[in-house]
Amino acid sequence: MKKLVCTTLLTLAGTAAIAPFAFATPNIALDLNPAYPEHVENPGGQMSAWCLVEPDGTTPDALRIVVEDPDGGVYAEWVYPGVTEWTLDWTVPEGVADGIWNYHVEYYSEDGLAASADQAFIVAGRTSGICAFKFLDDNGNGVLDDGELLLSDWEICLTGPEGSDCDFTDEDGVTCWFFLAPGTYEVCETMQDGWTNTTDLCTEIPVSNSIEKAMFGNMPVVPVQVRSWGSIKSVYR
What we know:
CATH architecture of the largest domain: Sandwich
Mean pLDDT: 86
Shape: globular
CATH class of the largest domain: Mainly Beta
Number of strands: 22
Strand content: over 45%
Number of helices: 0
Largest sheet: 5 strands, mixed
Structural class: mainly beta
Strand order of the largest sheet: 6-12-11-8-9
Number of domains: 2
Helix content: under 10%
């Protein structure tokens, strides 16, 4: 949210001068451990998350920190008045579902909600499944390195004992299939124009009683000049 200082019109000797606009745009930095592509064990695993707000001229009022379940519901929340930095250690309790959970932070200034940020994390251990990650392989080595970005809206297809299913990576660059029957599955990415793969297009993964990972890397045929935040999201480690 941007806080706008209203334009003031000044008239001097018959000449109008308009004062410049001033904006305050608070920024929230997040870090989460374990980050993608690792997961938090269910139950008993611990997720540690950190947030830091740069108020950018606003007056801090409170931080609201939320852990959201795979359905987007609020599982737990905390409100910390007057702070701009916090570390949360959350232990996965008994009886919760495997899936993609979310760490959500809201920063409130004295004027109300001023900024928010999210980072997803995987909770797994009660079921078997596969999570596929799609990343921008800057150096072309076929490995998700620190600082490389995950890509959203990329089709990944799964074929196994119970048939086939295709899905698109979410805003955090991942798509998961949970509650899979034991067996061997083929996971494939669907290539897009303008890209070349740095990992195999398909990989076979045996599934028994755990969450397996499939990694797919790509490089643009023409180097990316401008990266849109709507299509790529940073992986914090």
